[in-house]
Amino acid sequence: MTNRTLGALAVSLLASLLVAAPTAAVSAGVATDPLASSQAAAAEIATFWLSGGGANLAAATPYSVQTAVDKITTGGGGISPDTKPGSTPPSLPATTGTAPTTAGKVFFVGADGQPHWCTGTAVQSQYRNVVATAAHCVYDTERFDSTLDKWVFVPGYAGGTIPSGLYVGKQLFGHYDFDAYRDYDRDYAFVVVYEGVVPSPTGGLANFGRLGDNVGGQGLAWNQPMGSTVDVFGYPAGQHPDGKRPYTGETLESSRGRTITAMAPSLKGENLQAVDSPFTGEGSLGSAWMLRYDKASGRGYLNGLTISVADTDADLRYDTSLSPYFDGELAAVYSAASTHWSGAVLPG
């Protein structure tokens, strides 16, 4: 559990790395919270997950908090872009050959004291060290004034392997309205992570370099029109209401659809977007919605993050995923995270 440092930071979208910033600067209430504020704390967290051959990673179960909603309404008004459309481009890793995927699992210890996971995605940033996911996969909504414990990101995690390193969360950047009021229209978070680590031959830890240098980073797009085609990437698990379990959570899955406006009364979500998707909620929380996704490079523009799913036709099968609408306030939160330095877990 961490003590919270909340600030209403006036963040300009005129940051140099944003390619198409809005014409007018937009300020947002940005909440920033430490996850592992020292190298020693980060090393302890990494050891927790990697010791015993990664036993705690293997024991983790998909996070089951706020995975589904009973009723949503789609279409109609509700979303109004607050600035002109904008974007920042994706980056490719510096290594040659086939680029590793930017998608992976975020692992943490929940309020129940047990290890869990959601989906996360590496995004482009100045120091190549930012991960995007749902805010309630970082903030602990079951405990007051706390973040989830021992938060890490493992890109490409599958079958107990860590092909591109493990990255300990250093600093959380989210929207003040989610932190303070649990406003699910703002259920998004950008986490600055330390450089990666892997198990060393001697049983300790070894540095593995920056996240973006190893796997690249997706771009970001905001204030995009509804009706855009997005590719959704995540690790769905769990079962549909009919009891069937089409996904194991062990492999990265994808679906494609067009975005539409949505409202979810149970979440008090009035400015959400929805897309047709057969994903179950467990495991897919934090899944990336990629705009203009290019299969050849594995890169596109992050334009949504799954925060819950719904069965809209009452056939006992989830058919729709929900995300906050990415607007200028989200871009301001991202801008604050994208210039935050982290450094390595181990000295030297």
Walk me through this protein's architecture.
Helix content is 12%, strand content 33%. The protein is mainly beta and 348 residues long. The chain has helices spanning 39-59, 176-181, 211-215, 328-338; strands at residues 30-34, 61-62, 68-69, 73-74, 86-88, 103-109, 115-123, 130-133, 149-155, 167-175, 189-193, 196-199, 205-209, 219-222, 229-234, 253-258, 260-264, 269-276, 288-294, 299-305, 308-310, 320-324. The longest helix is centred in the first third of the chain and has 21 residues, at 39-59. The strands form four sheets. It has a six-stranded antiparallel barrel with strand order 6-7-8-11-10-9. A six-stranded mixed beta sheet has the order 3-21-22-18-17-4, with no helix packed on it. The chain contains four helices and 22 strands. The protein starts with 29 loop residues before the first strand and ends in a 10-residue tail after the last helix. The chain has a single domain, classed as Beta Barrel (Thrombin, subunit H).
Q: Using only CA atoms, what is the Rg? A: 18 Å
Instruction: Classify the fold: give the CATH topology.
Output: Thrombin, subunit H
Strand content: 25-35%
What oligomeric state is this?
Answer: single chain
Helices and strands: which structural class?
Answer: mainly beta
- The geometry reads as globular
CATH class: Mainly Beta
Task: Output the strand order for the largest sheet.
Answer: 6-7-8-11-10-9
Q: Do you know the CATH architecture?
A: Beta Barrel
> What portion of residues is helical?
10-25%
Summed up, the domain count is: 1
User: Number of helical segments?
Assistant: 4
H/E topology pattern: EHEEEEEEEEEHEEEHEEEEEEEEEH
